[in-house]
Amino acid sequence: MLKVSDLTVRYGELTVTDKVSFSLKAGQWLMLVGPNGAGKSTVVSSISGGTSYSGNISVLGRNAKSYRPNELAKLVGVLSQSHSVGYGYTVEEIVRLGRYAHSPGLFAGKSQADDDAVAEAISRTGLEPFLKQSVLTLSGGELQRTFLAQLFAQNPKILILDEPTNHLDLQYQKEVFELIRDWLKEPERAVISVVHDLSLAKAYGTQALLLHRGKTVSQGPISEVFSRENLHSAYSLDVYAWFKDMYGQWQ
Fold it and tell me: Which residues form the ABC transporter domain (predicted)?
């Protein structure tokens, strides 16, 4: 579904990512991990068309740069860690905006397909009680769930999640990741998540890409990438020993 080859991003003399390569198949959930400044967000921004790069990104067998923005939006959807909402749209209105990429024109009316996609997204995320509520009144978890529903209504093939639960409490972190896992069960879907929490990554991911200073430390099945040696190389820390000490307090 997705193939990234020699992805390189430079800002002047600064190389942010250096020849990063990986692929993603249907049904896979890739966790993009590494310390701050590793280039994780730059990788996902490049895939979604937000950052200029050299190298090649192929989406469903076609060069990503050959897609028009609305074409790419039908295939790749992005959920950020925060959202700027300056107007009191209702939850339903925000979810319905996910259908914009499928609209044939600026003033085109909504179709039955739009209504069906929005209804399914609302049902999947359990937002029925909030439909007429202003998003300005929502908690952080409810707001993130609303924008996740918008993404589900957009109905892309690939979800890109840039630290989607970074500011959420434990209940909402679990809720968001469970919703994504459920979405991924449908055919011809894949997910990429930028995460800092390695426990969450290991619990939900099938694949991992471990970066350090813009370079690949390891990539492949998450059980192989998350070896003691690889994590120490990326974080300059015995992550296994630290986690054992931390979680030992709960035993």
Answer: 2-238
In a domain, residue 119? The reply is no
Average the pLDDT over each of 54-68, 132-146, 188-202 and give the range with the smallest value: 132-146
Q: Which domain holds residue 42?
A: 2-85+156-250
Reported as a single tens digit per residue, the pLDDT across 12-34 is 999 999 999 999 999 999 999 99
User: Model's pTM, two decimal places?
Assistant: 0.90
CA nearest to 205, candidates 161, 250, 142: 161
Are 157 and 187 in contact by the 8 Å Cβ rule? The answer is no
Residue whose C-alpha is closest to residue 39's, from 230, 216, 218: 216
Q: With respect to residue 137, please indicate whether it lies within any of the assigned structural domains.
A: no
Asked whether residue 12 is domain-assigned, the answer is yes
Q: Are strands 76-79 and 158-162 parallel, antiparallel or unpaired?
A: parallel
The amino acid at residue 122 is I
